[in-house]
Design brief:
By secondary structure, the chain is an all-alpha fold. The protein contains ten helices and no strands. The longest helix has 41 residues. The radius of gyration is 24 Å and the shape is globular.
């Protein structure tokens, strides 16, 4: 839904929303990875080959890395724009696409690392949560992600302090104050996404860290499944945050659902003679849509460059 909304609504055609859409793709991938895990766990684990077992774990690792990398990219993009008090970045389309490709390339590489860094030749170094994973790899993996979380939290805290400090000086100007409030609202939405991600994934990473440090004494297997369920629930929380915090996203969601319902009703209903002779809704609304489209295009065509998303007047 988030990806379709960003694709359909031209108001979302900016770097920050493309990165959020890429994070939504990571959430979708996480759901696929978790479904695959549920279909190949428990009594079915013994039927997996070694390669299939590594693939099952790699899917989870890729989804986590992609989510973390997207959040880090969003944090850097927000820091770049907020410091200059812009609503959207002037980053070119090519750079955004290249950034998203790099995020998935790094995620895939991190997902494949356990196939080389494992405990097959040193069984005493094996993890209890992931039996073929090296405990040293789990320590490295958990510390790396927890450190990334800390950096992002510190970065967003600095951004909020800067925005609040700057807003005190522009309070006398109504237009600038409205722009500042828009920036703050967007920052609150992204911060809620970051907070939900940290809350959902931190317990699982702590369990992995304890498993790597203490081994069987950590009793990680007792809490592993609960932490994994909480982590995967993060993929469900993000679209809810978008809906509650962003009015434009909420309206786009409604348009998508209404469009699907209308198509379903049109397939079941046969057209009557009156309906055939009467103008279609598309023909009736065509002048309105053209006017709205011209209104949306006019300011952007006159004030923006060919390969950037700079908002006029910002």
């Amino acid at each position: 839904m988030v990806m379709v909304a960003i694709f359909m609504n031209r108001r979302f055609h900016f770097p920050i929303y493309y990165l959020l859409g890429n994070m939504a793709a990571a959430d979708l991938f996480a759901g696929i990875a978790y479904a695959n895990l549920m279909l190949n766990t428990g009594p079915w684990t013994g039927m997996l080959t070694k390669e299939q077992w590594y693939i099952r774990g790699a899917l989870i690792d890729i989804s986590l890395t992609a989510s973390v990398a997207n959040l880090l990219a969003v944090a850097v993009e927000r820091h770049q724009t907020i410091v200059t008090m812009q609503l959207h970045s002037t980053m070119s389309k090519r750079r955004v696409v290249l950034l998203m490709v790099c995020i998935w390339a790094v995620s895939i590489i991190m997902g494949l690392v356990p196939t080389f860094w494992n405990c097959e030749c040193h069984l005493e170094d094996c993890s209890t949560v992931a039996p073929l994973y090296s405990r040293r790899f789990l320590i490295f993996w958990a510390i790396l992600n927890l450190l990334t979380f800390s950096i992002m939290v510190a970065m967003y805290a600095r951004i909020f302090i800067y925005v609040r400090y700057h807003s005190q000086y522009v309070s006398e100007h109504t237009s600038e104050m409205q722009h500042s409030q828009t920036v703050v609202n967007l920052m609150k939405t992204i911060s809620m996404v970051l907070g939900a991600f940290v809350i959902c994934w931190t317990p699982g990473l702590v369990i992995l860290l304890l498993d790597g440090l203490l081994g069987k004494d950590s009793r990680a297997n007792v809490y592993e499944k609960f932490c994994l369920v909480i982590a995967e629930c993060n993929s469900l929380v993000n679209p809810i945050i978008y809906t509650l915090r962003d009015d434009e996203m909420r309206r786009t969601f409604k348009d998508i659902l209404c469009c699907l319902c209308q198509r379903g009703g049109d397939k079941q209903r046969e057209p009557s003679p009156v309906e055939v002779d009467s103008p279609s809704p598309e023909e009736t609304l065509l002048p309105v849509l053209k006017t709205e489209d011209q209104a949306l295009r006019a300011p952007r065509d006159n004030n923006s460059k060919e390969d950037s998303w700079t908002v006029p007047g910002v």
